């Protein structure tokens, strides 16, 4: 057993009695009420999911296993000379709750390397897509095609004990995670650089650096990749992608089915695809102003035009957050350090100074502040990834770290099939009248 798996096993054994006690001693304790608005309004704020991997405070933003993003970026081990930590270290942290030592991450990097081989048929699936296909559709299908590799399914058919579900799920999850950057880079090269072809990974490199290498990008794109994958990894469990992954896995569908499903949820413009939408919207503004930074009044007019035509301002607002997303801030700080004179960054920064006030005046969005997606495309564009359809694939690679960690723990703690109850409009009307 690898060091990480041993540590995880120990943590699972320690944790199980807490869940058992909660269920046995407090199973019928009421912890929340549900309003009509919540039932009709997308279940906002209903506390009905449990996870220890991350928690989202509306004013502070995300914490992974209790650590803020700044703390995660500071404390996790890094490669020599790197600004951003190893992605493998984040997987260790999310699974165990502990910051790994340098040698523990190095072991994990070797383990990931050994799991990187992608079967030929996955490349065939990707190659069979027409080149106009959206990269998220290709990614979802590529992950789905790997389903036949599932260890969980083999063990399940052999009659596995429920207590052991986590073990083969860990194998499947780690196998898939190690392959995600290869699949992403292959899709990128196929769609946008067919002349270059696929670059096979360099076994001496970690998750982030390898991705940069396969994308054909020089430093500091290795750090950009590490930063990207780390900040997008998890956002507690109610967001569409994490929730979809959890829901699908709750029927004991394997991690390939669940991850493909989470990718499909992430591909919507109100969720992960917003990063692509931000760049599309920005390009509209840049074209309109011929690349010359507009005045405050011109910016305001552009924002109001979007709102008045019944569209949302991409990259702003959030279902839970009520302040500027710390993931936005991490990327902004990176931009200030590495690309302060980038023209698109200047547009993004100028918009930051006008959009929140306009959204407040508009009076609809509960959160007028920017989310992660308002900044993420700018960094990619700067380093030459200008094909913004691809941006959500980067989000998906990052998000798979959190979703897969959650699924392993779901199985370890024996969380059951998810199956909430629905009611009809008639029933709801009767319920409110009888109150
Ligand atoms: N621009 C214009 N209107 C907005 C915005 C925005 N950025 N954000 C919210 N609203 C509107 C929203 O459409 C709704 O209008 P209506 O009453 O007509 O249906 C109203 O304000 C209330 O919505 P909220 O309760 O504030 O937001 P909700 O929780 O429903 O949705 C988002 C959250 C993120 C879907 C929403 O803020 C949005 O559409 N933002 C733009 C898209 C985006 O950036 N998504 C990325 C989110 C982060 N991620 O990576 O997933
Ligand atoms: C996310 O990272 O999943 C998004 O910010 C959306 C959310 O948390 O609802």
TrEMBL record:
Enzyme Commission code: 2.3.3.16
Taxonomic lineage of the native organism: Bacteria, Pseudomonadati, Bacteroidota, Flavobacteriia, Flavobacteriales
Any GO molecular function: citrate synthase activity
Acyltransferase listed as a keyword: yes
Pathway: Carbohydrate metabolism; tricarboxylic acid cycle; isocitrate from oxaloacetate: step 1/2
Superkingdom classification of source: Bacteria
Family of this protein: Belongs to the citrate synthase family.
InterPro entries recorded: Citrate_synth-like_lrg_a-sub, Citrate_synth-like_sm_a-sub, Citrate_synthase, Citrate_synthase_AS, Citrate_synthase_sf
Keywords: Acyltransferase, Transferase
First-tier enzyme category under EC: transferase
The protein, known as: citrate synthase (unknown stereospecificity)
Keyword Magnesium carried by entry: no
């Amino acid at each position: 057993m690898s060091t990480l798996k041993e540590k995880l096993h120990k943590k699972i054994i320690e944790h199980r009695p807490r869940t058992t006690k909660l269920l046995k001693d407090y199973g019928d304790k009421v912890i929340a009420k549900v309003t009509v608005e919540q039932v009709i309004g997308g279940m906002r704020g209903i506390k009905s999911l449990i996870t220890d991997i991350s928690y989202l405070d509306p004013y502070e933003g995300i914490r992974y296993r209790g650590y803020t993003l700044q703390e995660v970026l500071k404390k996790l081990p890094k490669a020599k000379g790197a600004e951003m930590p190893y992605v493998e270290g984040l997987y260790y942290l999310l699974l165990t709750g502990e910051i790994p030592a340098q040698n523990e991450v190095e072991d994990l990097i070797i383990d990931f390397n050994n799991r990187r081989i992608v079967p030929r048929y996955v490349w065939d699936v990707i190659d069979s897509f027409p080149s106009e296909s959206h990269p998220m559709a290709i990614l979802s299908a590529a992950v789905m095609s790997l389903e036949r590799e599932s260890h969980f399914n083999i063990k399940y058919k052999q009659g596995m004990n429920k207590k052991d579900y986590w073990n083969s799920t860990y194998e499947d999850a780690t196998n898939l995670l190690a392959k995600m950057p290869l699949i992403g880079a292959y899709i990128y090269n196929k769609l946008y650089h067919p002349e270059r072809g696929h670059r096979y990974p360099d076994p001496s490199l970690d998750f982030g650096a390898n991705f940069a290498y396969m994308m054909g990008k020089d430093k500091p794109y290795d750090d950009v990749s590490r930063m990207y994958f780390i900040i997008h990894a998890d956002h507690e469990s109610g967001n569409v992608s994490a929730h979809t992954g959890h829901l699908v896995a709750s029927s004991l569908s394997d991690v390939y089915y669940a991850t493909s499903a989470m990718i499909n949820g992430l591909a919507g413009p109100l969720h992960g695809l917003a990063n692509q939408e931000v760049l599309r919207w920005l390009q509209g503004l840049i074209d309109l102003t011929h690349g010359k930074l507009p005045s405050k009044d011109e910016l305001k007019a552009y924002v109001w035009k979007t709102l008045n035509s019944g569209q949302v301002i991409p990259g702003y607002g959030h279902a839970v957050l009520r302040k500027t997303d710390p993931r936005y801030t991490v990327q902004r700080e990176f931009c200030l350090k590495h690309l302060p004179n980038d023209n698109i960054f200047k547009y993004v920064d100028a918009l930051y100074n006008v959009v929140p006030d306009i959204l407040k005046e508009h009076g609809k969005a509960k959160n007028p502040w920017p989310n992660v997606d308002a900044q993420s495309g700018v960094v990619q564009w700067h380093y030459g990834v200008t094909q913004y359809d691809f941006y959500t694939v980067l989000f998906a690679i990052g998000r798979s770290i959190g979703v897969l960690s959650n699924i392993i723990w779901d199985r370890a703690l024996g969380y059951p099939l998810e199956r909430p109850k629905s009611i009809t409009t008639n029933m709801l009307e009767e319920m409110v009248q009888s109150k």
